[in-house]
Write a structure and sequence with these properties.
Layout: H1 12-22, E1 29-30, H2 47-59, H3 72-83, H4 87-90, E2 94-99, H5 101-116, E3 121-126, H6 130-138, E4 142-147, E5 149-150, E6 155-156, H7 158-166, E7 173-177, H8 190-203, E8 206-211, H9 220-223, H10 225-233, E9 237-242, E10 255-260, H11 264-281, H12 288-297, H13 300-330, E11 347-349, H14 354-364, E12 366-367, E13 373-375, H15 384-394
Parallel strand pairs: 1-12, 3-4, 3-7, 7-8, 8-9
Antiparallel strand pairs: 2-10, 5-6, 9-10, 11-13
Helix pairs in contact: 2-12, 2-13, 3-12, 5-6, 5-11, 7-8, 8-10, 13-15
Bound molecules: pyridoxal-5'-phosphate (PLP).
Pyridoxal-5'-phosphate is lined by residues 34, 101-103, 129, 177, 182, 210, 212, 242, 244, 250, 255.
């Protein structure tokens, strides 16, 4: 049977990391993977996570199964983090399962939607995170795109986006990035979100909000504005969140899939289907990451420390956005790259050609995905000048 398989190309982003690791150039720069790095190019475990791990080692009493929903305490606390003191919590309309990362949450959301409406169409932004297409297709959905980024003017193409959303059939699903859009870094502003929420309500499509970078844009509550607004506007929605980036828990695989129904009775039915979807996929989620997050969120001291560490990551990324723009100017680049400072989160499109991306890799050992998306966290004061000089050289 296996001899019938055909070789598949490696995942473009994961394949880039492999090439980067094998490169012996001491000046090499990795701007590929969406992983936070400090000034020394490291991704250390957060101090608050280390402390939560010490507590967990001392206090964990059992390794017995947790059940398909995962830890109830994690689910409660992640809802508070994502939604604040929202009506949907007070009205008991939300049901949550902890999942293996944000990707697990998206896959569960996809399978849940497929249980409601087999083969439903989900609309994703053009462009979107490369894995959205694969995850939803694997869950049995049909994937279509709506316009989002204006490549020429390096901004959100809001008029085209909103016009397309108005045309979406009411039984379809629309995926929205809550904040720090991956890959463009370009988010709707508050007024634009209000318009999007009003269209979702009018048209009646199901919004699935993907929040993988809460706290990396403007702040924890600020970045969740879109989620809370959407939950105000519609009766039913799905929220997929990830603790990979904001808690630095990438490999622990912890996220959440939260489904909001129109009332508590509907939510109970949702829960039964949600648990079945999890049970037939991976039975139950890993527990370690959830235990760390619930410990941090349940302690004033650890929460304060986490807020500080998160702000440090956010501020460093924003500082590197400005530094890159300044260094490009210093190195004689006349093209306007100021849009980089108007974007949020980990990513930006440089807007250079695939040939220029290739030259950066081959001649300068600078690793960027083919679309020219750069992960800003790979920039540091020690490599920004080399990076700007190399970009200037290929332009
Ligand atoms: C937009 C978006 N959604 C979801 C994810 C999934 O994150 P993870 O599965 O690592 O938690 C990512 C990760 O890069 C992402 O960028």
């Amino acid at each position: 049977m296996f001899s019938e398989l055909k070789q598949l190309p490696p995942d473009p982003i994961l394949g880039l990391s492999v090439k980067y690791k094998a490169d012996t150039n001491p000046n090499k720069i990795d701007l590929g993977a969406g992983v936070y790095k400090d000034e020394d190019g490291q991704t250390p475990v957060l101090a608050c996570v280390k402390k939560a791990e010490t507590l967990r080692t001392a206090n964990e009493a059992s390794k017995a199964y947790l059940g398909s929903a995962g830890s109830a305490l994690f689910n409660e606390r992640i809802n508070q983090l994502n939604l604040g003191d929202h009506n949907v919590i007070r009205e008991n309309r939300i049901r949550t399962v902890s999942t293996p990362g944000g990707t697990g949450a998206l896959r569960i959301a996809g399978e849940f939607i497929n249980s409601c409406r087999p083969g439903a169409t989900i609309w994703v932004s053009n462009p979107t995170w490369a894995n959205h297409q694969g995850v939803f297709t694997a869950a049995g959905l049909k994937v279509e795109t709506y316009p989002y980024y204006d490549y020429e003017n390096k901004c959100l193409d809001f008029p085209s986006m909103i016009a397309a959303l108005k045309q979406i059939p009411k039984d379809d699903v629309v995926l929205l990035h809550a904040c720090c859009h991956n890959p463009s870094g370009m988010d709707p502003n508050a007024e634009q979100w209000q318009e999007i929420a009003a269209v979702a309500k009018d048209v009646g499509f199901l919004p699935v909000v993907d929040m993988a970078y809460q706290g990396f844009g403007a702040g924890l509550d600020e970045d969740a504005y879109s989620v809370r607004l959407m939950a105000d506007a519609v009766d039913e929605m799905i929220l997929c969140s990830s603790c990979s980036k904001n808690f630095g828990l990438y490999r622990e695989r912890i996220g959440a899939c939260s489904i909001i129904g129109k009332d508590a009775t509907a939510a109970d039915i949702i829960q039964s289907v949600l648990l079945r979807v999890v049970r037939v996929n991976y039975s139950m989620p890993p527990a370690h990451g959830a235990a760390l997050v619930e410990t941090i969120l349940g302690s004033d001291e650890l929460s304060a420390e986490w807020h500080g560490e998160l702000a440090e990551m956010r501020d460093r990324i924003n500082g590197m956005r400005q530094l890159l723009v300044d260094k490009l100017t210093e190195n004689g680049v006349t093209r306007d790259f100021s849009f980089i400072t108007r974007q949020n989160g980990m990513f930006s499109f440089l807007g250079i050609t695939p040939e220029q991306v290739q030259r950066l890799q081959e001649e300068y050992s600078i690793y960027i995905v083919g679309s020219s998306r750069i992960s800003i966290a790979g920039i540091s004061p020690s490599n920004a000048d080399y990076l700007a000089k190399s970009i200037a050289a290929v332009l």
